[in-house]
Design brief:
The protein is α+β, with helices and mostly antiparallel strands. It has helices at about 1-20, 70-85, 90-105, 115-125, 130-135, 200-220, 225-230, 245-250, 255-280, 295-340, 355-370, 390-395, 400-405, 405-410, 425-435, 460-484; strands spanning about 25, 30-40, 40-50, 60-65, 145-150, 155-160, 165-175, 190-195, 415, 425.
Length: about 475
């Protein structure tokens, strides 16, 4: 028995010398616990049991299930490693470790194994959902969406098809996923567009948002916040989302700095008032019985105007610096209050990157592939035409298309994405935003957010003035026609 135990210890010592990266915290003649880690997010722990009669009876390998190792990967590894132990007459520890190290080092999908399986299932189911097939003329001829995996390269080829539209994307997983390294240019998931028949403005918008979602999640944001903050349609300064935000914006803060600013402004206003009074006063020549010296008067007024201008410029520069400082402070405060970084490592408070692969693929399937059958909330007609060539003609900016009557009518159906995330026809969106009631919410039953697009004013008062001016112009035309 002693010689049997010694042989096991010698075998383990030899395996450790060959694979020093494998950590063995516990080793006994009956079992050992070993851990191999390629990155902090790729860590596999195993328990190897030595039965009676080893090595005639092969050792038994059990993989611990945790956040890195889902049930599917646990089952796969246990099956492969136990087969390796069975086929090896001696030195089974070394053989099992060799297979484990090779698997972890060459398979870049280990840290996203669970997400990957969810992605494959989602892509396969996306071709059978009613939302993507209800308007297909001939479903039997429609190409199926596919997802192809290359484990050693850490590359995913995603091909999404819906009706006659398609988009082919490559996703490269960083070796440090969900963190990032220089291998993919600092991105945990690098998204590359390979081919598509969507117009360039639409693909540019979607691909930039997809990559921005990944960037924000590797900075620690949750999926929902990353999706909201990556919105390519930005909110203008005068666009208020709700009354609570307006109250918070105009909430006064009484501090030593604000009191000092008030005193400074009061002194500046007093100086300006004195200079204006001086400018407005008459200059009398001494000893001349009230005779006005107009030359001295002009010079004094000119000097007063210069002093006012100089003082105004200095105050403007000071106010601009203060506004910039206040804006930076507000942004920092908003990040703290909103919990910009959602997850922290307890030691040191550094940011914990969040897995982003499943969120990324979900966005591509729902927002890009799903765009094909999306309907305009105003007219309830599909946003994109059935034929991709018709959509390209809408975005055609050549000189011939500008004079073509049919092209002009087609451009009224140009799709526009608003801040709330829905897509509208250009003519529908123009009517919604430029005619009363102004500041209306999105007509979609599940949205309820106010509609905004940067090509239209976000200020309700400005929209009201423009509409009133337009109506006045129309009334003048009608009056002129009636007169004639």
């Amino acid at each position: 028995m002693t010689s049997h135990h010694n042989s096991i210890q010698e075998e383990v010592a030899e395996a450790q010398s060959m694979f020093p990266a494998v950590n063995v915290p516990t080793s006994t003649p009956s079992f050992l616990i070993a851990t191999y880690q390629r990155t902090p997010y790729t860590r596999i722990k195993m328990t190897m049991t030595f039965p009676d009669g080893y090595p005639t009876h092969p050792l038994i390998v059990n993989i611990d299930q945790d956040a890195v190792v889902p049930p599917g990967l646990k089952k796969k590894l246990e099956k492969e490693l136990n087969i390796v132990a069975t086929e090896q007459p001696t030195q089974q520890v070394r053989a099992v470790w060799e297979r484990l190290v090779s698997f972890v080092d060459t398979n870049l999908f280990v840290p996203c194994w669970k997400e990957l399986r969810q992605c494959v299932e989602m892509v396969q189911k996306s071709d059978t959902t009613p939302a993507t097939t209800k308007l297909t003329a001939n479903k039997s001829k429609q190409k199926q969406s596919t997802i192809t995996l290359y484990e050693s390269k850490g590359k995913i080829k995603l091909s999404l098809h819906n009706e006659e539209y398609y988009i082919n994307v490559n996703i490269t997983i960083d070796p440090a996923y969900p963190d990032f390294s220089a291998a993919t240019g600092g991105k945990s998931c690098l998204v590359e567009l390979k081919s598509t028949n969507f117009p360039k403005p639409i693909t540019d918008m979607m691909m930039s948002q997809a990559q921005d979602i990944v960037r924000r999640m590797q900075e620690g944001l949750s999926a929902d916040k990353a999706m909201n903050l990556s919105n390519p349609v930005k909110v203008p300064k005068n666009f208020h989302l709700n009354i609570d935000e307006m109250k918070e914006k105009y909430k006064a803060r009484l501090t030593k700095d604000t009191i000092s600013d008030i005193k400074h402004d009061t002194e500046a206003l007093k100086k300006v008032t004195d200079l204006r009074n001086k400018e407005a006063s008459s200059v009398k020549a001494p000893g001349d019985n009230g005779y006005v010296d107009y030359k001295a008067l002009a010079k004094e007024r000119k000097d007063a105007r210069r002093a006012i201008q100089k003082l105004s410029d200095e105050e403007k520069a000071a106010d601009q610096q203060l506004e910039e400082k206040e804006l930076a402070w507000k942004l920092e405060e908003q990040k703290r209050n909103a919990g910009y970084y959602d997850v922290y490592i307890p030691t040191g408070g550094t940011i914990t990157p969040q897995p982003s692969l499943y969120v990324l693929v979900t966005f591509l399937v729902q927002k890009v592939k799903g765009l094909v059958v999306e309907t305009c909330p105003c007219c309830n007609k599909r946003v994109l035409p059935i034929c991709p060539d018709e959509l390209k003609s809408i975005y055609d900016t050549s000189s011939s298309s500008k004079t073509d009557k049919r092209a002009k009518e087609m451009r009224k159906m140009k799709p526009y994405r608003t801040y709330c995330g829905h897509w509208y026809h250009k003519s529908c969106l123009n009517t919604l935003l430029t005619e009363p009631p102004f500041g209306i919410e999105c007509p979609d039953a599940n949205c309820g957010r106010r509609v905004f697009h940067p090509e239209w004013p976000g200020d309700v008062k400005q929209l009201e003035r423009e509409w009133a001016a337009k109506q006045a112009c129309l009334r003048e035309i009608e009056d002129a026609m009636c007169f004639l």
